[in-house]
Structure formats: structure tokens, C-alpha cells
């Protein structure tokens, strides 16, 4: 996975993206989809005081897991903050919406990346 602070939404290979999109649409079936939103899965959330957004996590090698913030780490302006990056052989790219409320630590010497939740409050 590439971590890209300049990219807004996260790009996932097709199988992962389609599975996520399907699960989110099923979990958020109570909310109307926008037919012409800026991303593939956008909702008209006008008039809703609260919105139930499913939890999404990334699991990395070595047992590391990050739980994305709800709803800010999942939705951007009512749209699922993910898009398809390409075929399954494509690399996933972690966009900045999914990095909200995380401090991202780069240990260049040991070739490791760390995420610290709620570090930006």
C-alpha cells in the first residue's frame, strides 16, 4: 500500500473495492443514493440528524490494524471515500481522508510505518 497525503480518497484494487462498496451500500441502505454524485457511492444525507456509518478497518502484515474514524474517515461530503485503483494486481493507495485523526510515523531506518489513532485532536 502506498500512503499518499495528496490524494483525497483511497484507491483499492477491484475485488477489494467492490466488496467494500457492496458492504457499505448494504449497511447504509436506509439512505438514498445520489444518482450523479462526484464518486460512485454518494448519499443524500440532507435532513438526517445522525447517520449510521459502518466501521472500516485496514489490516496490515505483521498483525497491525487501523480502524478508520466514523464517519469522517469513511465518508467525504456524503460519498464513500474510496475508489477503484485498477485491476486486482494494482497497488492500493491510502488517501488523506482515511488518514484523518492519525499521526503517521515513518521509520526509514527500519523500513516501517506506524499509525497512532486520535493523535490529531
Explain this structure:
This protein has 121 residues and is α/β, with parallel strands linked by helices. Helices cover 12% and strands 29% of the residues. The chain has one domain (2-117): Beta Barrel (Cathepsin D, subunit A, domain 1), CATH 2.40.70. The radius of gyration is 15 Å and the shape is globular. GO terms for molecular function: aspartic-type endopeptidase activity.
Task: Give descriptors for this structure.
121 residues; Peptidase_aspartic_dom_sf; globular; PEPTIDASE_A1; aspartic-type endopeptidase activity; alpha/beta; two-stranded parallel ribbon; Cathepsin D, subunit A, domain 1; TAXi_C; Peptidase A1 domain-containing protein
Overall form: globular
Residue share in helix: 10-25%
CATH class: Mainly Beta
Q: How many discrete domains?
A: 1
From the N-terminal CA to the C-terminal CA, the straight-line distance is 25 Å
Mean pLDDT: 91
Beta-strand percentage range: 25-35%
Extended strand count: 10
Category by helix and strand content:
alpha/beta
Task: Please sum up the structure shown.
The chain has 121 residues and is an alpha/beta fold.
Helices and strands in order, then pairings?
Elements: E1 2-3, E2 10-13, H1 14-27, E3 57-59, E4 65-67, E5 75-76, E6 79-80, E7 82-86, E8 93-94, E9 102-107, E10 112-117
Parallel strand pairs: 1-8, 2-7
Antiparallel strand pairs: 3-4, 5-6, 9-10
Amino acid at each position: 500500500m502506498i500512503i499518499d497525503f495528496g490524494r483525497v480518497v483511497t484507491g483499492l484494487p477491484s475485488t477489494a473495492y467492490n466488496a467494500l462498496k457492496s458492504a457499505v451500500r448494504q449497511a447504509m441502505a436506509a439512505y438514498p443514493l445520489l444518482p450523479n454524485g462526484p464518486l460512485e457511492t454518494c448519499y443524500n444525507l440532507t435532513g438526517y440528524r445522525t447517520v449510521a456509518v459502518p466501521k472500516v478497518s485496514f489490516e496490515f502484515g505483521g498483525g497491525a490494524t487501523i480502524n478508520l474514524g466514523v464517519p469522517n474517515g469513511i465518508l467525504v461530503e456524503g460519498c464513500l471515500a474510496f475508489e477503484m485503483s485498477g485491476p486486482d494486481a494494482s497497488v492500493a493507495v491510502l488517501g488523506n481522508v482515511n488518514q484523518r485523526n492519525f499521526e503517521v510515523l515513518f521509520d526509514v531506518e527500519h523500513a516501517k510505518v506506524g499509525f497512532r489513532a486520535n493523535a490529531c485532536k
